[in-house]
Amino acid sequence: MLCNYSILCNNQVGGYGRPTVIKKMKHILLFVLVLATFGCFGTVTKVTRVIDGDTFETESGDKVRLIGINAPEISDLFGQESKQYLLGLIENKTIELQTDKRTNDRDVYQRLLRYVILDGIDINKKMVSDGFAFAYLKYHFSRKNDYQQAQNQARETNKGIWGDNKKEILINEQEKKEPSFYQNLSPKAYIVSSLVMILFLVGIYTYFRK
């Protein structure tokens, strides 16, 4: 009898314990799935105003700069055409904004640096592949190779900018107006680099003073 009672007790403990463990595991799995979902999807917002071929404003008031591309300025050749093309693609539409781990969250002008996705289409890449913006290849970003291929195809097929008889002028203007490394540093980067330089100079001064 004692032996049977012990077996019965063990079965009851096991019976109550196992469902509890499984329930906890389900909660953990659900939590992981939620985190993965937030990691895969970006922020959904509405475009209220297109500023030029690579910058726009959202309903929250944020200005967004498209990652990996550079469009002609409004005052430059093809600047208005580039703006109007982007305007036709996204203005007054709900889009998804995605970040890139290889780039900063904002540029020196405090604009959000984002990929723009609309109906599954990468708008940044489309601006390049349709010839209304240049691929910004001097900077590192995750989709750099794809954008370079898109630009090569646009150039070979004379799309947009590449079909303009003044395209050489556009290319030269693009190269001249590309900002230097220091112009693209964020305020935080300026502060950190300045502190490092000060510490370096203090270290040299202290060393030679001895």
Descriptive notes:
- This protein folds into 2 domains: 1-40; 43-178, Beta Barrel (OB fold (Dihydrolipoamide Acetyltransferase, E2P)), CATH 2.40.50.90.
- It has a 5-stranded mixed beta barrel with strand order 1-2-3-6-5.
- The chain has helices at residues 2-40, 79-90, 123-129, 144-156, 167-177, 187-209; strands at 43-52, 55-58, 63-66, 69-70, 94-98, 112-118, 121-122, 134-135.
- 50% of the residues lie in helices and 17% in strands.
- The chain has 210 residues and is α+β, with helices and mostly antiparallel strands.
Question: Would you kindly provide a brief summary of this structure?
Answer:
The protein has helices at 2-40, 79-90, 123-129, 144-156, 167-177, 187-209; strands spanning 43-52, 55-58, 63-66, 69-70, 94-98, 112-118, 121-122, 134-135. With 210 residues, it is of the alpha+beta class. The longest helix is centred in the first third of the chain and has 39 residues, at 2-40.
Text of the CATH class of the largest domain: Mainly Beta
Helix segment count? 6
Q: What proportion of the residues form beta strands (DSSP E)? A: 15-25%
Give the rounded overall mean pLDDT: 80
Question: Segments where pLDDT lies below 50 for 5+ residues?
Answer: 5-9, 11-16, 34-40, 179-186
Strand order of the largest sheet: 1-2-3-6-5
In the CATH hierarchy, the third-tier topology of the largest domain is known as OB fold (Dihydrolipoamide Acetyltransferase, E2P)
Order of helical and strand elements: HEEEEHEEEHEHHH
Structural class: alpha+beta
Number of strands: 8
Gyration radius, rounded = 27 Å
Distance between the termini: 89 Å
Largest sheet: 5 strands, mixed, barrel
Task: Please state the overall shape, judged from the principal axes of the Cα atoms.
Answer: extended
Number of spatially distinct domains: 2
The share of residues in helices is 40-55%
CATH architectural designation of the largest domain: Beta Barrel
